[in-house]
From TrEMBL:
GO terms for molecular function: S-methyl-5-thioribose-1-phosphate isomerase activity. InterPro entries: IF-2B-related (IPR000649), IF-M1Pi (IPR005251), IF_2B-like_C (IPR042529), Initiation_fac_2B_a/b/d (IPR011559), M1Pi_N (IPR027363), NagB/RpiA_transferase-like (IPR037171). This is Methylthioribose-1-phosphate isomerase. Belongs to the EIF-2B alpha/beta/delta subunits family. MtnA subfamily. Its EC number is 5.3.1.23. It catalyses: 5-(methylsulfanyl)-alpha-D-ribose 1-phosphate = 5-(methylsulfanyl)-D-ribulose 1-phosphate; 5-deoxy-alpha-D-ribose 1-phosphate = 5-deoxy-D-ribulose 1-phosphate.
Amino acid sequence: MKVAGRQYRTIWLEDDGWSVGIIDQTLLPHSFEVCRLTTVEDAARAIATMQVRGAPLIGATAAYGLCLALRADPSGSSLERAGQQLIATRPTAVNLRWAVAYMIEALRDPKVTSLGDGERVAAAYDLAAKLCDEDVAINQAIGTNGMRLIEMARSAKSDNAQPVQILTHCNAGWLATVDCGTALAPIYQAHDAGIAVHVWVDETRPRNQGFSLTAWELQQHGVPFTVITDNAGGLLMQRGAVDLCITGTDRTTAGGDVCNKIGTYLKALAAHDNGIPFYVALPSPTIDWTLHDGGAIPIEERDPGEVTHVSGRDEAGQLRRVALVSEGSPAANHAFDITPARLVTALVTERGVCAASREGLLGLFPERRDDVQEA
């Protein structure tokens, strides 16, 4: 993606060849700033504080966090400690655990452990770079497969010149991945192919990733959009102003249940009630093949201050954090919810589109059959 004419990924190696650059997403949309990670502690803090967020990008950051840990101490015990430290940062997104396991398994290979310290560290960096490149390729394929659904929606309209109206929730775009995005990848590809699209971007309380990230991304790319409150989606669906919904996911079970940002379930219910397709875009590392029931997914509970306070720019251009509730008001901050498979029209993966079911997923990923537990 381009920002002010310059091409960016969301994570990269700096010119020194070892430290890691990221975009500080906590400052968007008011300020675009990059940060440099030099230790595994930096990587863990970036994940925990949501300087990086989105399941695929969290995984990529963890992979480079392991590289930074090995650079400081190339021992096997250092690798294990760093893996545990990174996994502990956020419990819901399965990509984090997947990326750490992917890296550790590869770095435990005797061919790697027999290398000298410097070569082992170099091997870790190569693995992390490969993981990032694979994420980009996966998301490009998701974009291609999902764009067909947008083309179907356009074909169903009486006037093809009218834009396809798409509602999304949270941010599942370029900023949530290494590049391209998951739920936004089909939208970008459709827009670039000349298909008229318009995106309803809801705020996504309490951290407002829709307002601060999705809207900013779409504006950078030139995609038409309108920001709305979280609870406006149902009314828009009732009035025929939404042709389809598409979201991302932080973890999807082998049975097709979807865990995504809090509020996703309510969007799916409204879409179901109004006969509107509800699609979920996901890279295969986001599938938890060991779980069938979404109720078993741990739901992250974050700082209640994210609910009771909000940050923004005042009329003088200064960033301020202000309270929204009376002092001492108790608050709860559940970061995700579960959308049952029965409410999901289809899953969009890098291998194609399938039903949100065990059979649908295994039809695209038959090699995972032995990993799937019976319901």
